[in-house]
Protein backbone atom coordinates (compact mmCIF):
# COMPACT_ATOMS: atom_id res chain seq x y z
CA UNK A 1 0.00 0.00 0.00
CA UNK A 2 2.91 2.32 0.66
CA UNK A 3 3.99 3.85 -2.63
CA UNK A 4 7.10 5.64 -1.79
CA UNK A 5 8.92 4.64 -4.93
CA UNK A 6 7.60 6.50 -7.92
CA UNK A 7 11.06 4.36 -8.62
CA UNK A 8 24.66 6.41 -1.98
CA UNK A 9 23.84 8.18 -4.50
CA UNK A 10 24.20 7.88 -8.20
CA UNK A 11 24.89 11.04 -10.05
CA UNK A 12 27.60 10.68 -12.69
CA UNK A 13 29.73 13.20 -14.48
CA UNK A 14 30.47 12.77 -18.19
CA UNK A 15 33.77 13.85 -19.61
CA UNK A 16 34.64 13.89 -23.30
CA UNK A 17 37.96 12.30 -24.24
CA UNK A 18 39.64 11.24 -27.44
CA UNK A 19 38.14 7.80 -27.46
CA UNK A 20 34.61 8.90 -26.66
CA UNK A 21 32.72 9.43 -23.43
CA UNK A 22 33.97 8.04 -20.15
CA UNK A 23 32.38 7.83 -16.73
CA UNK A 24 33.79 9.55 -13.71
CA UNK A 25 32.16 8.96 -10.35
CA UNK A 26 32.99 10.68 -7.11
CA UNK A 27 31.44 10.97 -3.72
CA UNK A 28 30.64 14.64 -4.27
CA UNK A 29 28.98 14.07 -7.66
CA UNK A 30 26.92 11.20 -6.30
CA UNK A 31 25.86 13.31 -3.34
CA UNK A 32 24.98 16.29 -5.54
CA UNK A 33 22.67 14.15 -7.67
CA UNK A 34 20.87 12.78 -4.64
CA UNK A 35 20.59 16.22 -3.06
CA UNK A 36 19.14 17.69 -6.25
CA UNK A 37 16.54 14.94 -6.51
CA UNK A 38 15.84 15.23 -2.79
CA UNK A 39 15.16 18.95 -3.11
CA UNK A 40 12.94 18.30 -6.11
CA UNK A 41 11.17 15.44 -4.36
CA UNK A 42 10.56 17.47 -1.21
CA UNK A 43 9.21 20.37 -3.26
CA UNK A 44 6.93 17.97 -5.12
CA UNK A 45 5.81 16.39 -1.84
CA UNK A 46 4.99 19.75 -0.27
CA UNK A 47 3.23 21.00 -3.38
CA UNK A 48 1.37 17.70 -3.70
CA UNK A 49 0.32 17.95 -0.07
CA UNK A 50 -1.03 21.46 -0.58
CA UNK A 51 -2.76 20.19 -3.71
CA UNK A 52 -4.37 17.41 -1.64
CA UNK A 53 -5.61 19.96 0.88
CA UNK A 54 -7.25 22.10 -1.82
CA UNK A 55 -8.58 19.00 -3.59
CA UNK A 56 -10.15 17.56 -0.46
CA UNK A 57 -11.86 20.85 0.34
CA UNK A 58 -13.20 21.18 -3.21
CA UNK A 59 -14.53 17.65 -3.70
CA UNK A 60 -15.07 16.25 -0.19
CA UNK A 61 -14.18 12.91 1.36
CA UNK A 62 -16.63 10.78 -0.67
CA UNK A 63 -15.37 11.91 -4.10
CA UNK A 64 -11.82 11.61 -2.77
CA UNK A 65 -12.64 8.00 -1.97
CA UNK A 66 -13.94 7.43 -5.53
CA UNK A 67 -10.73 8.94 -6.91
CA UNK A 68 -8.67 6.62 -4.70
CA UNK A 69 -10.70 3.68 -6.03
CA UNK A 70 -9.71 4.26 -9.67
CA UNK A 71 -5.99 4.70 -8.96
CA UNK A 72 -5.39 0.93 -8.59
CA UNK A 73 -6.52 0.56 -12.23
CA UNK A 74 -3.89 3.13 -13.17
CA UNK A 75 -1.26 1.25 -11.15
CA UNK A 76 -2.19 -2.11 -12.66
CA UNK A 77 -1.89 -0.78 -16.23
CA UNK A 78 1.50 0.78 -15.44
CA UNK A 79 2.70 -2.44 -13.78
CA UNK A 80 1.74 -4.49 -16.82
CA UNK A 81 3.25 -2.13 -19.37
CA UNK A 82 5.96 0.24 -18.16
CA UNK A 83 7.32 -0.51 -14.66
CA UNK A 84 9.53 -3.41 -15.74
CA UNK A 85 10.59 -1.56 -18.89
CA UNK A 86 11.70 1.50 -16.92
CA UNK A 87 13.91 -0.61 -14.63
CA UNK A 88 15.39 -2.41 -17.65
CA UNK A 89 16.08 0.89 -19.44
CA UNK A 90 17.65 2.44 -16.32
CA UNK A 91 19.81 -0.61 -15.55
CA UNK A 92 21.07 -1.15 -19.10
CA UNK A 93 21.60 2.57 -19.65
CA UNK A 94 23.80 2.64 -16.53
CA UNK A 95 25.87 -0.31 -17.80
CA UNK A 96 26.40 1.15 -21.28
CA UNK A 97 27.05 4.57 -19.84
CA UNK A 98 29.94 3.08 -17.87
CA UNK A 99 31.35 1.96 -21.23
CA UNK A 100 30.64 5.28 -22.96
CA UNK A 101 28.33 3.59 -25.51
CA UNK A 102 25.58 6.13 -26.22
CA UNK A 103 24.48 4.31 -29.36
CA UNK A 104 23.53 1.30 -27.26
CA UNK A 105 21.72 3.59 -24.80
CA UNK A 106 19.63 5.01 -27.63
CA UNK A 107 18.79 1.50 -28.81
CA UNK A 108 17.78 0.48 -25.29
CA UNK A 109 15.39 3.41 -24.98
CA UNK A 110 13.86 2.76 -28.40
CA UNK A 111 13.27 -0.89 -27.54
CA UNK A 112 11.80 0.11 -24.21
CA UNK A 113 9.32 2.56 -25.77
CA UNK A 114 8.37 0.07 -28.48
CA UNK A 115 7.82 -2.72 -25.96
CA UNK A 116 5.70 -0.42 -23.80
CA UNK A 117 3.51 0.57 -26.76
CA UNK A 118 3.02 -3.04 -27.85
CA UNK A 119 1.93 -4.01 -24.36
CA UNK A 120 -0.35 -1.02 -23.80
CA UNK A 121 -2.27 -1.28 -27.09
CA UNK A 122 -4.23 -4.47 -26.30
CA UNK A 123 -4.42 -3.83 -22.55
CA UNK A 124 -5.67 -0.28 -22.97
CA UNK A 125 -8.30 -1.41 -25.46
CA UNK A 126 -9.44 -4.11 -23.05
CA UNK A 127 -9.69 -1.58 -20.22
CA UNK A 128 -11.84 0.72 -22.36
CA UNK A 129 -14.15 -2.07 -23.54
CA UNK A 130 -14.50 -3.53 -20.05
CA UNK A 131 -14.70 -0.20 -18.19
CA UNK A 132 -18.33 -0.76 -17.21
CA UNK A 133 -17.64 -4.22 -15.79
CA UNK A 134 -14.50 -3.01 -14.01
CA UNK A 135 -16.34 -0.12 -12.36
CA UNK A 136 -19.35 -2.18 -11.26
CA UNK A 137 -17.97 -5.63 -10.45
CA UNK A 138 -14.33 -5.00 -9.51
CA UNK A 139 -14.42 -1.53 -7.95
CA UNK A 140 -17.98 -1.82 -6.72
CA UNK A 141 -19.09 1.67 -7.82
CA UNK A 142 -20.41 2.55 -11.29
CA UNK A 143 -19.41 6.20 -10.77
CA UNK A 144 -15.78 5.31 -11.49
CA UNK A 145 -16.34 4.39 -15.18
CA UNK A 146 -15.51 7.79 -16.70
CA UNK A 147 -12.29 7.99 -14.70
CA UNK A 148 -11.27 4.53 -15.95
CA UNK A 149 -11.81 5.56 -19.58
CA UNK A 150 -9.64 8.65 -19.17
CA UNK A 151 -6.89 6.72 -17.40
CA UNK A 152 -5.81 4.94 -20.61
CA UNK A 153 -4.35 8.03 -22.37
CA UNK A 154 -2.90 9.10 -19.03
CA UNK A 155 -1.05 5.75 -18.76
CA UNK A 156 0.27 6.18 -22.32
CA UNK A 157 1.79 9.57 -21.57
CA UNK A 158 3.07 8.54 -18.14
CA UNK A 159 4.82 5.47 -19.57
CA UNK A 160 6.63 7.47 -22.26
CA UNK A 161 7.62 10.06 -19.66
CA UNK A 162 8.93 7.46 -17.19
CA UNK A 163 11.00 5.63 -19.80
CA UNK A 164 12.82 8.81 -20.80
CA UNK A 165 13.12 9.91 -17.18
CA UNK A 166 14.75 6.64 -16.08
CA UNK A 167 17.07 6.69 -19.06
CA UNK A 168 18.30 10.06 -17.77
CA UNK A 169 18.71 8.56 -14.30
CA UNK A 170 20.64 5.62 -15.73
CA UNK A 171 23.09 7.96 -17.46
CA UNK A 172 23.50 10.03 -14.31
CA UNK A 173 21.94 13.21 -15.72
CA UNK A 174 19.37 14.03 -13.05
CA UNK A 175 18.75 17.69 -13.86
CA UNK A 176 16.35 17.34 -16.83
CA UNK A 177 13.95 14.95 -15.05
CA UNK A 178 14.24 16.96 -11.84
CA UNK A 179 13.24 20.16 -13.63
CA UNK A 180 10.47 18.35 -15.50
CA UNK A 181 9.14 16.85 -12.28
CA UNK A 182 8.95 20.25 -10.61
CA UNK A 183 7.13 21.95 -13.48
CA UNK A 184 4.87 18.91 -13.89
CA UNK A 185 3.66 19.25 -10.31
CA UNK A 186 2.88 22.92 -10.85
CA UNK A 187 0.96 22.20 -14.06
CA UNK A 188 -0.96 19.32 -12.48
CA UNK A 189 -1.99 21.43 -9.52
CA UNK A 190 -3.07 24.33 -11.73
CA UNK A 191 -4.84 22.10 -14.29
CA UNK A 192 -6.81 19.94 -11.85
CA UNK A 193 -7.80 22.71 -9.47
CA UNK A 194 -8.54 25.07 -12.37
CA UNK A 195 -10.88 22.56 -14.02
CA UNK A 196 -12.66 21.90 -10.74
CA UNK A 197 -13.11 25.60 -9.98
CA UNK A 198 -14.44 26.26 -13.48
CA UNK A 199 -16.86 23.33 -13.80
CA UNK A 200 -17.98 22.42 -10.28
CA UNK A 201 -20.56 21.50 -9.12
CA UNK A 202 -20.78 18.25 -11.07
CA UNK A 203 -21.85 14.70 -10.38
CA UNK A 204 -19.23 12.59 -8.52
CA UNK A 205 -18.44 10.64 -11.71
CA UNK A 206 -17.75 13.80 -13.73
CA UNK A 207 -15.74 15.28 -10.88
CA UNK A 208 -13.42 12.27 -10.92
CA UNK A 209 -13.19 12.63 -14.70
CA UNK A 210 -12.13 16.27 -14.34
CA UNK A 211 -9.32 15.24 -11.98
CA UNK A 212 -7.99 12.65 -14.44
CA UNK A 213 -8.28 15.15 -17.30
CA UNK A 214 -6.06 17.54 -15.36
CA UNK A 215 -3.54 14.71 -14.91
CA UNK A 216 -3.53 14.14 -18.68
CA UNK A 217 -2.77 17.81 -19.33
CA UNK A 218 0.33 17.74 -17.12
CA UNK A 219 1.53 14.41 -18.57
CA UNK A 220 1.40 15.87 -22.10
CA UNK A 221 3.87 18.52 -20.99
CA UNK A 222 6.18 16.07 -19.17
CA UNK A 223 6.34 13.49 -21.96
CA UNK A 224 6.98 16.10 -24.67
CA UNK A 225 9.60 17.93 -22.59
CA UNK A 226 11.64 14.83 -21.73
CA UNK A 227 11.59 13.59 -25.34
CA UNK A 228 12.98 16.93 -26.56
CA UNK A 229 15.60 17.09 -23.78
CA UNK A 230 16.83 13.55 -24.44
CA UNK A 231 17.23 14.26 -28.15
CA UNK A 232 19.22 17.37 -27.30
CA UNK A 233 21.49 15.29 -25.07
CA UNK A 234 22.07 12.79 -27.87
CA UNK A 235 23.09 15.63 -30.17
CA UNK A 236 25.93 16.54 -27.78
CA UNK A 237 27.55 13.10 -27.46
CA UNK A 238 29.59 10.89 -29.75
CA UNK A 239 27.24 8.30 -31.31
CA UNK A 240 29.90 5.88 -32.48
CA UNK A 241 28.96 2.57 -34.11
CA UNK A 242 28.23 0.00 -31.43
CA UNK A 243 28.67 -3.76 -31.51
CA UNK A 244 26.20 -4.24 -28.65
CA UNK A 245 23.05 -6.14 -29.56
CA UNK A 246 19.99 -4.96 -27.65
CA UNK A 247 17.84 -8.06 -27.83
CA UNK A 248 14.34 -8.48 -26.47
CA UNK A 249 15.64 -11.35 -24.36
CA UNK A 250 18.14 -9.07 -22.67
CA UNK A 251 15.47 -6.47 -21.89
CA UNK A 252 12.82 -8.94 -20.78
CA UNK A 253 15.25 -10.81 -18.50
CA UNK A 254 15.27 -7.65 -16.38
CA UNK A 255 11.77 -6.32 -16.99
CA UNK A 256 9.70 -9.49 -16.57
CA UNK A 257 10.66 -10.24 -12.92
CA UNK A 258 10.17 -6.58 -12.01
CA UNK A 259 6.85 -6.40 -13.89
CA UNK A 260 5.57 -9.58 -12.29
CA UNK A 261 6.54 -8.32 -8.85
CA UNK A 262 5.01 -4.93 -9.48
CA UNK A 263 1.85 -6.47 -10.94
CA UNK A 264 1.34 -8.85 -8.06
CA UNK A 265 2.04 -6.12 -5.53
CA UNK A 266 -0.32 -3.77 -7.36
CA UNK A 267 -3.05 -6.40 -7.56
CA UNK A 268 -2.75 -7.02 -3.82
CA UNK A 269 -2.75 -3.29 -3.15
CA UNK A 270 -5.76 -2.88 -5.45
CA UNK A 271 -7.55 -5.68 -3.65
CA UNK A 272 -6.81 -3.84 -0.42
CA UNK A 273 -8.26 -0.63 -1.80
CA UNK A 274 -11.43 -2.38 -2.92
CA UNK A 275 -11.75 -4.54 0.20
CA UNK A 276 -11.41 -1.74 2.76
CA UNK A 277 -14.73 0.02 2.02
CA UNK A 278 -16.48 -3.31 1.34
CA UNK A 279 -15.32 -4.77 4.65
CA UNK A 280 -16.26 -1.59 6.48
CA UNK A 281 -19.79 -1.97 5.06
CA UNK A 282 -19.80 -5.64 6.08
CA UNK A 283 -18.94 -4.49 9.60
CA UNK A 284 -22.06 -2.32 9.74
CA UNK A 285 -20.89 1.02 8.33
CA UNK A 286 -22.97 2.92 5.78
CA UNK A 287 -21.62 2.68 2.18
CA UNK A 288 -21.16 6.43 1.81
CA UNK A 289 -19.44 6.65 5.21
CA UNK A 290 -17.15 3.75 4.26
CA UNK A 291 -16.03 5.50 1.06
CA UNK A 292 -15.48 8.70 3.05
CA UNK A 293 -13.41 6.90 5.72
CA UNK A 294 -11.30 5.30 3.00
CA UNK A 295 -10.82 8.70 1.33
CA UNK A 296 -9.71 10.31 4.60
CA UNK A 297 -7.19 7.56 5.38
CA UNK A 298 -5.59 7.29 1.91
CA UNK A 299 -6.22 10.81 0.65
CA UNK A 300 -5.47 12.88 3.77
CA UNK A 301 -3.63 11.05 6.58
CA UNK A 302 -1.21 9.00 4.47
CA UNK A 303 -0.14 11.93 2.21
CA UNK A 304 0.87 13.86 5.33
CA UNK A 305 3.09 10.98 6.47
CA UNK A 306 4.61 10.68 3.01
CA UNK A 307 5.69 14.34 3.00
CA UNK A 308 9.27 13.66 4.26
CA UNK A 309 9.84 10.69 1.95
CA UNK A 310 11.10 12.77 -0.98
CA UNK A 311 14.60 11.79 0.15
CA UNK A 312 13.75 8.10 -0.17
CA UNK A 313 12.44 8.54 -3.70
CA UNK A 314 15.56 10.44 -4.73
CA UNK A 315 17.81 7.86 -3.11
CA UNK A 316 16.10 5.01 -4.93
CA UNK A 317 16.21 6.73 -8.31
CA UNK A 318 19.96 7.33 -8.11
CA UNK A 319 20.98 4.24 -6.13
CA UNK A 320 19.63 1.51 -8.43
CA UNK A 321 21.56 2.46 -11.61
CA UNK A 322 24.66 3.28 -9.58
CA UNK A 323 24.66 -0.12 -7.88
CA UNK A 324 24.04 -1.76 -11.26
CA UNK A 325 27.13 -0.04 -12.62
CA UNK A 326 29.27 -1.05 -9.63
CA UNK A 327 28.01 -4.64 -9.87
CA UNK A 328 28.82 -4.76 -13.59
CA UNK A 329 32.37 -3.55 -12.85
CA UNK A 330 32.80 -5.96 -9.92
CA UNK A 331 33.25 -3.25 -7.27
CA UNK A 332 31.92 -5.26 -4.34
CA UNK A 333 33.65 -3.24 -1.64
CA UNK A 334 32.17 0.00 -2.98
CA UNK A 335 28.72 -1.61 -2.98
CA UNK A 336 29.06 -2.51 0.70
CA UNK A 337 30.27 0.97 1.60
CA UNK A 338 27.41 2.57 -0.29
CA UNK A 339 24.79 0.35 1.35
CA UNK A 340 26.19 1.22 4.77
CA UNK A 341 25.85 4.94 4.04
CA UNK A 342 22.36 4.49 2.62
CA UNK A 343 20.98 2.63 5.63
CA UNK A 344 22.47 5.16 8.04
CA UNK A 345 21.04 8.05 6.03
CA UNK A 346 17.53 6.56 5.98
CA UNK A 347 17.52 6.16 9.77
CA UNK A 348 19.07 9.54 10.52
CA UNK A 349 16.59 11.45 8.34
CA UNK A 350 13.35 9.46 8.41
CA UNK A 351 13.21 8.47 12.11
CA UNK A 352 13.06 12.08 13.44
CA UNK A 353 10.61 13.07 10.69
CA UNK A 354 8.19 10.31 11.68
CA UNK A 355 8.64 11.13 15.38
CA UNK A 356 7.74 14.76 14.77
CA UNK A 357 4.70 13.90 12.61
CA UNK A 358 3.48 11.56 15.34
CA UNK A 359 3.41 14.55 17.71
CA UNK A 360 2.01 17.37 15.53
CA UNK A 361 0.42 15.34 12.73
CA UNK A 362 -3.06 14.64 14.18
CA UNK A 363 -3.83 18.27 15.08
CA UNK A 364 -2.22 19.58 11.90
CA UNK A 365 -4.14 17.15 9.68
CA UNK A 366 -7.50 18.09 11.20
CA UNK A 367 -6.68 21.77 10.77
CA UNK A 368 -5.50 21.66 7.15
CA UNK A 369 -8.06 19.15 5.84
CA UNK A 370 -11.02 20.31 7.91
CA UNK A 371 -12.03 16.73 8.76
CA UNK A 372 -12.27 15.38 12.30
CA UNK A 373 -11.05 11.91 11.21
CA UNK A 374 -7.91 13.19 9.47
CA UNK A 375 -4.82 12.25 11.45
CA UNK A 376 -6.34 9.19 13.12
CA UNK A 377 -3.91 6.28 13.73
CA UNK A 378 -0.95 8.62 13.18
CA UNK A 379 1.44 6.78 15.53
CA UNK A 380 1.12 3.25 14.07
CA UNK A 381 0.98 4.63 10.53
CA UNK A 382 4.21 6.56 11.17
CA UNK A 383 5.89 3.36 12.37
CA UNK A 384 4.69 1.54 9.27
CA UNK A 385 5.87 4.38 7.03
CA UNK A 386 9.36 4.30 8.55
CA UNK A 387 9.54 0.53 8.08
CA UNK A 388 8.28 1.03 4.53
CA UNK A 389 11.18 3.42 3.89
CA UNK A 390 13.64 0.68 4.86
CA UNK A 391 11.74 -1.84 2.75
CA UNK A 392 11.75 0.45 -0.29
CA UNK A 393 15.45 1.32 -0.14
CA UNK A 394 16.53 -2.28 0.48
CA UNK A 395 14.31 -3.50 -2.37
CA UNK A 396 16.02 -0.97 -4.65
CA UNK A 397 19.40 -2.28 -3.46
CA UNK A 398 18.43 -5.83 -4.44
CA UNK A 399 17.30 -4.64 -7.88
CA UNK A 400 20.54 -2.71 -8.29
CA UNK A 401 22.74 -5.75 -7.64
CA UNK A 402 20.68 -7.91 -9.99
CA UNK A 403 18.65 -9.87 -7.42
CA UNK A 404 15.21 -8.94 -8.68
CA UNK A 405 13.86 -12.37 -7.79
CA UNK A 406 14.59 -11.90 -4.10
CA UNK A 407 13.05 -8.44 -4.13
CA UNK A 408 9.96 -9.92 -5.81
CA UNK A 409 9.58 -12.71 -3.27
CA UNK A 410 9.92 -10.39 -0.31
CA UNK A 411 7.44 -7.90 -1.74
CA UNK A 412 4.89 -10.65 -2.33
CA UNK A 413 5.19 -11.89 1.26
CA UNK A 414 4.81 -8.35 2.60
CA UNK A 415 1.74 -7.60 0.49
CA UNK A 416 0.19 -10.94 1.39
CA UNK A 417 0.41 -10.04 5.09
CA UNK A 418 -1.37 -6.74 4.44
CA UNK A 419 -4.07 -8.37 2.33
CA UNK A 420 -4.71 -11.05 4.94
CA UNK A 421 -5.18 -8.46 7.68
CA UNK A 422 -7.54 -6.42 5.52
CA UNK A 423 -9.61 -9.46 4.59
CA UNK A 424 -9.91 -10.98 8.06
CA UNK A 425 -9.87 -8.03 10.45
CA UNK A 426 -11.33 -4.85 8.88
CA UNK A 427 -14.95 -6.03 9.16
CA UNK A 428 -14.39 -6.68 12.89
CA UNK A 429 -11.83 -4.04 13.89
CA UNK A 430 -12.57 -1.32 11.33
CA UNK A 431 -9.67 0.70 9.96
CA UNK A 432 -7.55 -0.45 12.90
CA UNK A 433 -7.30 -3.83 11.17
CA UNK A 434 -5.83 -2.24 8.05
CA UNK A 435 -3.41 -0.17 10.14
CA UNK A 436 -2.19 -3.27 12.02
CA UNK A 437 -1.63 -5.05 8.73
CA UNK A 438 0.21 -2.02 7.34
CA UNK A 439 2.70 -2.05 10.22
CA UNK A 440 3.27 -5.81 10.23
CA UNK A 441 3.54 -6.08 6.44
CA UNK A 442 6.11 -3.25 6.35
CA UNK A 443 8.05 -4.95 9.15
CA UNK A 444 8.04 -8.28 7.29
CA UNK A 445 9.18 -6.65 4.04
CA UNK A 446 11.94 -4.65 5.72
CA UNK A 447 13.33 -7.66 7.62
CA UNK A 448 13.24 -9.96 4.58
CA UNK A 449 14.95 -7.37 2.40
CA UNK A 450 17.58 -6.66 5.05
CA UNK A 451 18.50 -10.34 5.38
CA UNK A 452 18.64 -10.70 1.58
CA UNK A 453 20.87 -7.63 1.15
CA UNK A 454 23.25 -8.76 3.90
CA UNK A 455 23.64 -12.14 2.22
CA UNK A 456 23.96 -10.91 -1.35
CA UNK A 457 26.44 -8.12 -0.58
CA UNK A 458 28.28 -10.14 2.11
CA UNK A 459 27.70 -7.13 4.34
CA UNK A 460 28.35 -7.20 8.07
CA UNK A 461 25.31 -5.93 10.01
CA UNK A 462 25.85 -2.81 12.09
CA UNK A 463 22.47 -2.68 13.79
CA UNK A 464 23.49 -0.19 16.48
CA UNK A 465 24.76 2.43 14.03
CA UNK A 466 22.11 1.79 11.38
CA UNK A 467 19.01 1.55 13.57
CA UNK A 468 19.37 1.63 17.36
CA UNK A 469 21.13 4.97 17.87
CA UNK A 470 18.97 7.02 15.46
CA UNK A 471 15.75 5.38 16.71
CA UNK A 472 16.57 6.05 20.39
CA UNK A 473 17.43 9.65 19.56
CA UNK A 474 14.18 10.01 17.59
CA UNK A 475 12.18 8.52 20.49
CA UNK A 476 13.65 11.04 22.92
CA UNK A 477 12.97 13.80 20.40
CA UNK A 478 9.33 12.74 20.10
CA UNK A 479 8.78 12.68 23.86
CA UNK A 480 10.31 16.12 24.40
CA UNK A 481 8.56 17.63 21.37
CA UNK A 482 5.22 16.22 22.55
CA UNK A 483 5.63 17.74 26.02
CA UNK A 484 6.57 21.14 24.59
CA UNK A 485 3.78 20.98 21.98
CA UNK A 486 1.14 20.36 24.64
CA UNK A 487 2.50 23.23 26.76
CA UNK A 488 2.26 25.56 23.76
CA UNK A 489 -1.34 24.52 23.07
CA UNK A 490 -2.25 24.89 26.75
CA UNK A 491 -0.99 28.49 26.63
CA UNK A 492 -3.26 29.15 23.60
CA UNK A 493 -0.45 29.64 21.09
CA UNK A 494 -1.54 29.28 17.43
CA UNK A 495 -1.28 25.74 16.07
CA UNK A 496 1.27 26.55 13.37
CA UNK A 497 3.45 28.41 15.86
CA UNK A 498 3.22 25.50 18.30
CA UNK A 499 4.24 23.04 15.57
CA UNK A 500 7.26 25.13 14.56
CA UNK A 501 8.44 25.55 18.15
CA UNK A 502 8.02 21.82 18.84
CA UNK A 503 9.95 21.01 15.65
CA UNK A 504 12.78 23.38 16.60
CA UNK A 505 13.11 21.98 20.13
CA UNK A 506 12.83 18.42 18.85
CA UNK A 507 15.62 18.97 16.33
CA UNK A 508 17.94 20.30 19.03
CA UNK A 509 17.15 17.35 21.30
CA UNK A 510 17.67 14.88 18.43
CA UNK A 511 21.08 16.28 17.49
CA UNK A 512 22.13 16.38 21.14
CA UNK A 513 21.06 12.74 21.57
CA UNK A 514 23.08 11.70 18.55
CA UNK A 515 26.07 13.62 19.88
CA UNK A 516 25.72 11.97 23.28
CA UNK A 517 25.68 8.52 21.68
CA UNK A 518 28.82 9.35 19.70
CA UNK A 519 27.10 9.03 16.32
CA UNK A 520 28.09 12.40 14.87
CA UNK A 521 31.79 12.27 15.87
CA UNK A 522 32.04 8.68 14.60
CA UNK A 523 30.61 9.69 11.22
CA UNK A 524 33.16 12.47 11.01
CA UNK A 525 36.09 10.17 11.72
CA UNK A 526 34.88 7.68 9.12
CA UNK A 527 34.68 10.41 6.50
CA UNK A 528 38.21 11.57 7.34
Describe the structure.
- The protein is mainly α and 528 residues long.
- The protein is 83% helix and 2% strand.
- It is built from 16 helices and two strands.
- It has a two-stranded antiparallel ribbon with strand order 1-2.
- Strand 1 and strand 2 form a beta hairpin.
- It is globular.
- The chain starts with 12 loop residues before the first strand and ends with a helix.
- Mean pLDDT is 81; it is low at 1-28 and 522-528.
Write the layout of secondary structure elements.
Elements: E1 13-17, E2 20-24, H1 27-98, H2 102-129, H3 131-138, H4 145-170, H5 175-199, H6 204-235, H7 248-282, H8 287-305, H9 310-328, H10 332-369, H11 378-400, H12 404-429, H13 431-457, H14 463-490, H15 495-516, H16 519-527
Helix pairs in contact: 1-2, 1-4, 1-5, 1-6, 1-7, 1-8, 1-9, 2-4, 3-4, 4-6, 5-6, 7-8, 7-12, 8-10, 9-10, 9-11, 10-11, 10-14, 10-15, 11-12, 11-13, 12-13, 14-15
